[in-house]
Amino acid sequence: MSVDISTVKRVAHLARIAVSEDDATRMTSQLNAILGFVEQLNEVNVEGVEPMTSVTPMAMKKREDVVNDGSKAADIVANAPIHEENFFVVPKVVE
Amino acid sequence: MTDLTALTIAEARDQLKAKAITATELTGAYIQAIENANEALNAYVVTTPDKALQMAKASDARLASSNAGALEGIPLGIKDLFGTEGVHTQACSHILDGFKPHYESTVTANLWADGAVMLGKLNMDEFAMGSSNESSYYGPVKNPWRAKGSNTDLVPGGSSGGSAAAVAARLCAGATATDTGGSIRQPAAFTGTVGIKPTYGRCSRWGIVAFASSLDQAGPIARDVRDAAILLKSMASVDAKDTTSVDIAVPDYEAAIGKPLAGLKIGIPKEYRVEGMPEDIEKLWQQGIAWLKDAGASIVDISLPHTKYALPAYYIVAPAEASSNLARYDGVRYGLRVPGRDIVDMYEKTRATGFGDEVKRRIMIGTYVLSAGYYDAYYLQAQKVRTLIKKDFEDVFNAGVDAILTPATPSAAFGVADQDMAADPVKMYLNDIFTVTVNMAGLPGIAVPAGLDARGLPLGLQLIGRPFDEETLFQTAYVIEQAAGKFNAPKWW
């Protein structure tokens, strides 16, 4: 399988990465080189093989359903580019 | 006074305990060494000399009151991927500009609890994506090693290139690193240092910037096998904050060093003899086999039939996980924000400016293979192949093999700004051909220096072990180290 430039632009938008026409052209050939490389996986017979979900056979750990952390809003917003009164500030999303 | 930076961790530990030296003197020697060398090597992106001296002073107090931890007063470098409270943590990416976490990663917290001293944060490929340390926003690291009679700059490997270079150039006593497809073992092999990626689940991933969560593991890069064992003992722990942390007590790895190999069965996989592999590496591998045989191990030929599919499967699984892990960098919660006409435009511009080319490529591949209509063909297929790769190893271990010996890399260190690698991303990916299988199967792997090639550059061998049997790796790697000797880069910087 290979991708064309319009697919690359669509994927870039899904990934929320702005691309110029030049970027998209360059990426198309690079992504096709990688997709060409992974193509060889199709020759493996995977009939009846379970997809891996965990390398270590272990039951998922569960913790007790209790509040054991929190009340650190100021710590959480401390690294935000713009914040106000413990809120993240973003461009207007609702008209 | 002798050069304190020449001491291994084990030697420094003994001298500190005997009060022959102080942690403050030792730390001061490293701060000076970094000051002299970092402009040339670019191994550190940030140094924390004041913090280091403060920590060293506290170590000296604990040493004086015989209250010393296992790493008391030992100065370490920390890969920029580890969250360190109040200190630059950017995964060497532009998108995390100015990020200083309000928490400490479990691995680094374990090291400080044992008395270690932090010298600063080490350079790396952006978000640990790369095999040459050239994708760092902070510029490439130079390998302390150069070919005989040449002054061409070589890469230290990646992604833990800063860690490997700093250890090789004696700019820290040891370093933390991480390995998703070979990022500890490949740079260790390129710099004549020892690097171990432990079993998945051995070191907590909590507080480490995530790349591909089902593959990422932390581990040390050190000057010798014993130092690597000492560091791993402190880094590893069972951690409630990481649900994939496995509930098995951490053994005393150092105790495995020096044990005889009699009775051990070492497997030699025929699939690791790849086309175009330099003769030097084939010779080194044969030499390694001979050393282990001489030490009493029995050698058996084995087959791991799905080896060649590990790298293509990795380049689906790792980008898929990366694309979802890196979705969090949106210009809202931390780091860089580039304004836009609306919120989506802001996201797109921020991510276009903040991520480098290699990171964008992997996010794009990951987004594509997970997108509607392609999931089964790519991601599901890759995860099934991954099951088969793991089964290859299980079959061999079930047949009684204790560890597997392979080359660590398909070549020695290559030049900075190598044209072939720059033109074709897949060529760069092939660096991890011998290491990536280990991540796909979640196994422990160690790279140990075993010799120099004809140009005088270090080459490493890799040992792969059963899950949670790092002890056998230390035991076996030590035998190789004893036979091969240690290799130090002649100082030019």
Features:
heterodimer, A: Histone, subunit A, two-stranded antiparallel ribbon, 3 helices, 2 strands, B: alpha/beta, Amidase signature (AS) enzymes, 11 strands, globular, GatA (chain B), ligase (chain B), transferase activity (chain B), ATP-binding (chain B)
Could you explain the architecture of this structure?
The complex is a heterodimer of chains A (95) and B (493). With 95 residues, chain A is mainly α. Chain A has a domain at 5-42: Orthogonal Bundle (Histone, subunit A). Helices cover 35% and strands 4% of the residues of chain A. Chain A has a two-stranded antiparallel ribbon. In chain A, a hairpin with a 2-residue loop joins β1 and β2 (87-88). Chain A is flat and about 55 Å long. The model of chain A has no long low-confidence stretch (mean pLDDT 93). By secondary structure, chain B is of the alpha/beta class. Chain B has a domain at 4-263: Amidase signature (AS) domain (Amidase signature (AS) enzymes), CATH 3.90.1300. Chain B has 16 helices and eleven strands. Chain B has an eleven-stranded mixed sheet, with helices on both faces. In chain B, α5 runs parallel beside α6 and α9 (310-325) crosses α11 (357-370). Chain B is globular, with a radius of gyration of 21 Å. Chain B starts with 8 loop residues before the first helix and ends in a 9-residue tail after the last helix. The model of chain B has no long low-confidence stretch (mean pLDDT 97). Classes of the chains: A mainly alpha (95), B alpha/beta (493). Chains A and B meet through α1, α2 and α3 of A and α9, α10, α11, α12 and α14 of B.
